[in-house]
Amino acid sequence: MNKKIEFVFCVGLQSSASTWIFNVVCQMYRIYGKKTMSFYSEELNDVFSNIDDNCEICIVKSHSLDQNLIKFISCYKPKIIISTRELKDAISSMMKRFNSPFRDVPRDLSKSLCSLSCLDFDDALVLKYEHEFFKDPDLFYKISNFLDINIDVNFNINSFDFFSFENIRTMTAGDNYERNPDLYNKFLLHKNHVSDGAVDKWKCNLDSHQARSIDQALRSIDEIHQRIWPSGDIFFAMDFFHWNTEQISENEIFILPEGEMCIIWGPYFHIPKGRWRATYQIQVLEDVGRTRMRLDVVSGEKIVGMKEVAISNSLPDEFVVDFFHDDHFRPIELRIHSIDDRKVCRFKFSGVCLQIF
Predict the structure, then answer these.
(1) Which residues, in sequence order, are CB contacts of 276 under 8 Å at separation 6+?
(2) Is position 257 within any domain?
């Protein structure tokens, strides 16, 4: 491999115009005359397996970075361009463009947020979607200056026309996209890739309960550029969990059955490395004496925390499980099992609160 190879990483939240930035950077280096390679990757091994011996500039687009890639960036100090967006807007956009269910989209963004929280924002070029950088005609000069590339006025004018949201929206819409198979292979653009660039659309597309659930699960996200996430508690509401449909009755009241069974599981979010405390909020609704359940935490495929607890309507309705999570690239699963073969009771599950300590 060429020892003089330079790396540029375009890392951003989903729906933060990260693909647009990636294409602008690629085009600049092509005009600059460098031998470039460009692709999407989240893992260090994948990055190096994609590079050939003639490459001078490697441009990597990513939403998430594995631990080895983060270590590489920390040691090598490549150029990094980071794009962010108000989280509820990003989630709203993903739901609409890909017809994705509400429960799934925040999980994907949590993985991206964990990666971003590991980067040094002071040495990066940070672009906020809310500032509408994609409409700024001087943006190309800002990017070229950051990358130490000299571009002329013709590149600025011509490229801005090609990379305008309106032009990309036209290229990726409907039949136009089907007629141009290179749009993904060359530009990583998928069908209907670009929205209208508006901000605060979440207020029309998300209800108040969904908005509150996002804030509780991924709070402090709007301040991620200050690297303070997570600050305070993280709360995963019931919306983000799955459950055994045979064990739920009206008004989201669960029935704890006889025998052993996994009743509730989720949310498969990604969280930063660290020592955590999970507090399960479970309220028993009838007096049947004490019965038992098992609570556990799974990181990837490994159980990292587990506790058997006795529950009744006369006991506190919060149950704590401590655990250590060593890889943000693996999602966590929080589960509730019935294990008592003698008693059946009704209970209400509100969610799980996480605290790092």
Answers:
(1) 322, 323, 324, 325, 354, 355, 356, 357
(2) yes
pLDDT computed for residue 101 by the predictor: 86
> For residue 64, is it within any domain?
yes
Cβ contacts of 319 within 8 Å, gap of 6 or more:
279, 280, 282, 295, 307, 309, 311
pLDDT, tens only, 24-76: 888 888 877 778 888 899 999 999 998 888 889 999 999 999 999 999 999 99
The two structure tokens encoding residue 352:
């799980």
Q: How many domains does the chain have?
A: 2
Q: Name the band, by pLDDT with cuts 50, 70 and 90, for residue 221.
A: very low
- Of 168, 187, 206, the residue at which a domain comes to its end is 187
Type of residue at 273: K
What's the predicted TM-score (pTM) here? 0.85
Count Cβ neighbours within 10 Å for each residue of 249-258 and write b for 16 or more, e otherwise.
eeeeebebbe
Residue 219 is assigned to a structural domain of this protein: no
Backbone angles phi, psi at 155, to 5 degrees: -60, -45
Per the structure block, which two tokens stand in for 265? Answer: 């599981």
Distance CA 90, CA 76 (A): 30
Q: Are 67 and 115 in contact (CB under 8 A)?
A: no
